[in-house]
Amino acid sequence: SGSGPAMGDTSPRAALARRFGRALTLRLDQALGMAGEALSFRRPPTPWVHRLAFAEPISVIDDLCRVARDVAEALCARLEAKGLGARRFTFGYHRLDGQAAYRTVGLSRSGREASRIARLVAPKLEDIDPGFGIEAVTLFAEGVQALTEAQDGLESAGRLPAEASLAALVDRLTNRLGDDHVWRAEPYASHVPERTVSRKPALEGGAAGEWDPDRPRPLRLFARPEPITALAEIPDNPPRQFNWRGRLHRVVRAEGPERIGEEWWRRPIEAVGPTRVRDYYRVEDDTGARYWLFRAGLYGAGEPRWFLHGLFG
Q: Is the pTM of this model over 0.70?
């Protein structure tokens, strides 16, 4: 690639470059995919940001926590004046060398309580490297929306309502453990055990349905069924004993089978067959422990295999 069209070049491309400059041909090449183009995306500006600058740089963790509370109070006062709250707050600690460290806290419900926000971000400030000092702190509010005020009853004077207390607990756990580790189970319309539960935010909405009480499911369902060896009478009797993790369990009570077929429409048609059928049994061993077992495949359609899928209690 040269710096421009060669002398004497009479191609249409050279004529364009001479008349409009190389910027035009470069943009044409980028539009046609013949030249690379680095895209730089910028965060859209938000009015809900506040900045505090310091006369002297700070670096002590106690000072970082104090200014977090100060900037949160300033921004939350502006939100309160407009009757608004936010779901996410991002703190930015700007160092003297131009570098910045950002820490974000999220709320399960919109809020604007500065002390609560400062408490949530405090554990995340311990690993900030202040360098030669931090000269300013900024706070961005995201997910800003109208906040409806609620009237507390006389019986709740001096203490948080149960709903607010639960929200505060969920926020602490979520910001410490991560969004993927704090959730609630919601029934999902599927007869396949692995698909009957969906993960939803801990405090978002209510359950869309309920599980069938006539088909009890174990409190602990394994992510992957564990293979076992079992002794059972054919064709559909429950196992008399089974071996799981090197230990023999003798069955004294059993219920079943409950036949469950896989969702055949999720597989190629050639993969559908009797080996995809499961017969589930609820069994109790001689120690009183209860298990959820299933036999994969039907007798006469290959050698059946046994698995343990969950534990009751």
A: no
